[in-house]
Write a structure and sequence with these properties.
By secondary structure, the chain is an alpha/beta fold. The chain has eleven helices and seven strands.
Length: 287
């Protein structure tokens, strides 16, 4: 049996992302999303989540690139001169390896994000993180501690197979980044399992992340193994508006097209792939 969680990241980042996610849920194969508590459109995302109760919503722990939930003076090791979190994962990792990231501050900011999501009325289905920092050594221990404290029993494990491309011609540095992430995810897996946390058996979308064109999404579906898989996507409704703010070179609208494509929906139906969210993930469904 093939089960599939199509999960959209960055719910709450921007209104254009929020409405792209809801369109992907209502008109496509999207069943799950990850909420960014410090995003500029977090309140709108929470309203949309309540209006669409079938959509699973997890917490997208954010330690880079956005506003913190806590006051900057409480998390100085995580903050740049502009009062925002460090700009990207490479800066964070360099500081982490140099011993300049205070783990108690990581815990405090992540906990504040979980509490904000709950205060906005969200019932959280799972944990993942912006730029996948939750699987880093030591950071995973912090996140697992919070998962136990708040009863969050499901987590993304972003370990895409080392040699899988899905037809996406990525530059070498992206293959290298994926390999590093997959190594960290596989290292973290036994710790996650020992904590009683469930993860899908398979993960896709790292290499083509932000560039998941319909052909790439369909290629992943065609390669989908037995058991439960997650495909990570980043849909949005207006590339021009989003690109003016976020210089990630994402194909927001084409990712939305991919998850609402009639060819994709027909393939899922004809091949009896069961669409679920993290809410429905159980021990029996993983393998």
């Amino acid at each position: 049996m093939k089960r599939l969680i199509v999960n959209a990241d960055d719910f709450g980042l921007h209104s254009g992302v929020n409405h792209g996610i809801i369109e992907g849920y209502r008109q496509g194969c999207l069943r799950s999303t990850s909420f960014m508590a410090g995003g500029s459109a977090a309140e709108e995302a929470a309203v949309l989540a309540r209006e669409n109760p079938g959509l699973g919503v997890g917490i997208h722990l954010t330690l880079v690139a956005e506003r913190p939930v806590l006051s900057p003076d409480k998390i100085l090791s995580l903050i740049g001169a502009d009062g925002r979190l460090w700009p990207n994962h490479m800066i964070f990792i360099k500081k982490f390896l140099a011993g300049k990231i205070v783990l108690s501050e990581v815990s405090a900011e992540c906990e504040a994000q979980i509490l904000r999501a709950k205060a906005l009325g969200l019932s959280l289905s799972h944990i993942d993180s912006h730029q996948h920092l939750h699987v880093l050594p030591q950071i995973i221990a912090v996140v697992l501690s919070l998962a136990r404290k708040y009863g969050l029993r499901k987590m993304r494990l972003p370990g895409e197979d080392y040699f899988f491309t899905g037809g996406y011609a990525a530059p070498f540095f992206r293959h290298l980044a994926k390999a590093g992430l997959t190594f960290c995810a596989r290292w973290a897996r036994p710790k996650i399992q020992a904590a009683g946390i469930l993860t899908p058996a398979h993960f896709f979308g790292m290499l083509a992340g932000g560039h998941m064109l319909p052909a790439h999404f369909l290629a992943i579906l065609q390669a989908l193994p037995e058991g439960t898989s997650e495909i990570m996507v980043h849909p949005g409704q207006d590339d021009k508006v989003l690109d003016a703010i976020y210089h990630w070179h994402y194909h927001w609208r084409e990712e939305l097209t991919a998850i609402t494509s009639p060819a994709v929906l027909l393939y899922i139906k004809e091949h009896h792939i069961e669409l679920i969210s993290y809410k429905e993930l159980t021990d029996e469904q993983i393998l």
